[in-house]
Design goal:
globular, Enolase-like, domain 1, 2 domains, alpha/beta
Length: about 425
């Protein structure tokens, strides 16, 4: 293909003639905080086509910035931007110190930026490069929460009134402050809230008593049609998770998420033996190896690895293809710790992937949407990626500069007796 020419519509809206190969001439990291911190990688080619990728790691953003600036960007300069697979393998295999959240987010940022470049150079949205649409739109779920059950019920009602067909419901627990999932506003929940970690308390018995009551009231109030989801956030032992799943069976949840830490994949066998409540896990997964046994042994129903966490589109589609063999569906993480860049890329993945399950969708702040103008649109419970070349998300660097980095970390959790626990 060397020396060939093609006509492409560059993302800036200007027509340009692109020749191949396209060499990477520059790459830089932009850190901005329009309501929360985001790390963005911008890769520019000698043909004037650029791509952007998300490299955000909530509470550890500067670690990825250093990894990109010191170890990744120097080896990108001069490479052919079309060679996405080879560059992915170089950054993964060539690093020797494989996997981990810092490494894989840096790789993801490069990978998504290169897919963005290729889409723009060819004048095609990424979903066309992946193989085309498998569906017309992407069903998403919103986050409804409240300080207690009545507040949560009201929040769920507002989402259903807005057209959502799927809602994640979380409630505060009497006697415990700073319950997981309970934000400070109706639409935006950002747990990373201080330069040093804040501390919350956890009581499993109180939680286990409350959660089934919440979904009993939800079903009584809203009937059998809505898809309800719930995030346990790694708080239970395998046996406790099995008990919770059993107690929730009458309320027909779409899934319970992260019922127990997944480092021990075998632990999910115990849960599976005792409940038919569907299980979703994987927002902290970095590679297919984190999910291999869970998928192959059919111990989960949805894998929640994200474009950002799992090393980009190149690797996430391998996870999805493997999961499809075992009838496990996707449920990509989509909280606001992922920038609109990742959401845009995820929607191209979602609208293509044959074994799609559900997409998480937390609305970004108005400031974030302004910094990251995007082609994707929301309408009554569904997102569409748009047809812009690449992933359809851009970065307004002038506006981004008005929101400097603010040190923030995620909270920690302790049991009521002071023991450190899983946040």
């Amino acid at each position: 293909m060397s020396g060939s020419m093609t006509q492409a519509n560059v993302h800036s809206g200007q027509d340009a003639t692109v020749s191949f190969p396209m060499r990477i001439r520059d790459a830089r990291v932009v850190v901005t905080s329009p309501g929360r911190n985001f790390v963005t990688l911008k890769i520019e080619t000698d043909q004037g086509v650029y791509g952007i990728g998300d490299a955000t790691l909530n509470g550890r953003e500067k670690a990825v910035v250093a990894y990109l600036e010191h170890h990744v960007i120097p080896v990108l300069i001069g490479r052919d931007a079309r060679q996405i697979e080879d560059i992915w393998q170089f950054l993964y295999r060539g690093a020797y110190w494989r996997r981990g959240p810092v490494t894989m987010r840096a790789i993801a940022a490069v990978d998504v930026a290169l897919w963005d470049i290729k889409g723009k150079a060819l004048g095609a949205p990424i979903y066309d490069l992946l193989g085309g649409r498998s569906r017309d739109a992407v069903m998403v779920y919103g986050h409804a929460n409240g300080g207690d059950i009545p507040e949560t019920i009201d929040a769920v009602g507002r989402y259903l009134d807005a057209g959502y067909q799927a809602v994640r419901a979380q409630s505060g627990i009497p006697g415990l402050e700073l319950a997981y999932g309970v934000g400070r506003g109706e639409l935006h929940y950002e747990p990373a809230d201080a330069a040093l970690p804040t501390q919350s308390l956890w009581d499993t018995r109180k939680y286990m008593a409350l959660a089934p009551k919440l979904f009993e009231v939800l079903r009584d109030r809203f009937g059998p049609e809505p898809r309800f989801l719930h995030d346990v956030h790694h708080r239970l032992t395998p046996l406790e998770a099995a008990q919770l799943g059993k107690r929730l069976e009458p309320y027909d949840l779409f899934w319970i998420e992260d019922p127990t830490p997944a480092e021990n994949q075998e632990a999910f066998r115990l849960i599976r033996q005792h409940t038919t409540t569907p299980i979703a896990v994987g927002e902290v997964f970095n590679t297919i190896w984190d999910a291999k046994d869970l998928i192959q042994e059919q111990l989960i129903d949805f894998v929640r690895a994200s474009v950002l966490g799992a090393g980009g589109l190149t690797h996430l589609r391998r996870i999805a293809d493997f999961a499809a063999l075992w009838q496990v569906r996707t449920g990509c993480h989509g909280a606001t710790d992922l920038s609109p860049v990742t959401m845009g890329a995820a929607l191209h993945f979602d609208i293509w992937v044959p074994n799609f399950g559900m997409q998480e969708y937390m609305r970004h702040t108005a400031e974030t949407d302004a910094v990251f103008p995007h082609a994707y649109t929301f309408e009554r419970g569904f997102l569409r990626p748009g047809d812009a070349p690449g992933h359809g998300v851009d970065l307004d660097e002038v506006l981004a500069a008005r929101f400097p980095y603010e040190p923030r970390q995620l909270p920690v959790a302790r049991l009521t007796d002071g023991t450190m626990w899983n946040w």
